[in-house]
Structures are given as C-alpha cells and as structure tokens.
Amino acid sequence: MAHVEIQNASTADHVPEDEQFRQWAAGALRSPDAELLVRIVDEPESAELNRAYRHKSGPTNVLSFSLEVPEGVPNAFLGDLVICAGVVEREAREQNKNPDAHWAHMVVHGVLHLQGYAHEEDSEAEAMEAEEIAILTRLGFSNPYESNCHEKEAIPS
C-alpha cells in the first residue's frame, strides 16, 4: 500500500484531515508501493520555495519536487508536494469551488507531476487534465475545469 507522509506546517484553520490527503494521493498513484510526502505550508514558505526553485514571486497553490535517482536504482519514493493552504482556500473561494474538491485537485495535480505529467505544451496539458478529471471523478468530485461549476462534496468511501 502507498505510503503518504503528511506534514502540516500551516496555521490555517481549515486544512483537511491527514487521511483525506492520503486517500486523494492514493487515488492518483500508479504504483500501490509508491511513497511521497505532502507538506502543507503557509504563504511565506510557499513564496520562498517558489522564488528559490521556480524563480517566480509570491506563493503558489502546489509545488512538486520529484526525486531523481540514477536509472536502474530501485526506489519507491516519488518526491514531495508542498501545498499552500492560504492559496488553496482563496482559490476555492474565488472560483466558487468546494474547498475539499479544490484541495483534492491540488493533491492529484501534484501527484501527477511527480509521476512525470506536465502541462507546458497543449497536448501535455490536455492529457494531464483528462487524467485529473478521471481520477477526481473516481474520488467523487466533479470536473474542476468546468466553468462556473460548484464542485460537489466527496462521496464517502
């Protein structure tokens, strides 16, 4: 079974439970033996990481840091996701989305990046979005890319 470590370094009041993060990440993982870390942070830490690693100013919703190992070296650890609670909460409000649905989308999006998905080119973005939609549907959420949609609550498992 996948191992997803959660580090909550955020002071936000409405961060989902660790088990929700694990469920969302597991839903996006190709390998049941994969391992990753999900770190929830506040805006200053997100902004510093975004500046240091992407050379962009300000906080961002999710950053993914893939672990790169030499070819042929067995490794189940994919890398780290850093999700900014303040940005995710603000985006959900501004986009009229269910907060849990938006959190789930950020986890799925980040996990897909750790598994090699990208969205620099239109064809890559289309493939990644289709995979996100399929995974989120399996997790009980609606399409996050439909305009003016209010995402439904997750279906309890």
Brief rundown of the structure:
The chain has 157 residues and is of the alpha/beta class. It has five helices and four strands.
Task: From the structure above, extract its key features.
5 helices, disordered C terminus, alpha/beta, Collagenase (Catalytic Domain)
Low-confidence stretches: 148-157
Written as H for each helix and E for each strand, in order along the chain, the element string is EHEHEEHHH
Distance between the termini: 17 Å
CATH topology: Collagenase (Catalytic Domain)
* Major β-sheet profile: 4 strands, mixed
The proportion of strand residues reads: 15-25%
What's the CATH architecture? 3-Layer(aba) Sandwich
User: Could you say which structural class the secondary elements and strand pairing correspond to?
Assistant: alpha/beta
Mean pLDDT: 91
Total domain units: 1
Per DSSP, the total helix count is 5
Give the % helix. 40-55%
Q: What's the overall geometry?
A: globular
- CATH first level: which class? Alpha Beta
* CATH superfamily descriptor: Metalloproteases ("zincins"), catalytic domain
Radius of gyration: 15 Å
Structure, described:
This protein is α/β, with parallel strands linked by helices and 157 residues long. It has one domain: Collagenase (Catalytic Domain). The chain has five helices and four strands. Strands 1-2-4-3 form a four-stranded mixed sheet.
Write the layout of secondary structure elements.
Layout: E1 3-8, H1 18-28, E2 35-41, H2 43-54, E3 62-66, E4 77-84, H3 85-94, H4 99-114, H5 122-138
Parallel strand pairs: 1-2, 2-4
Antiparallel strand pairs: 3-4
Helix pairs in contact: 1-4, 3-4, 4-5
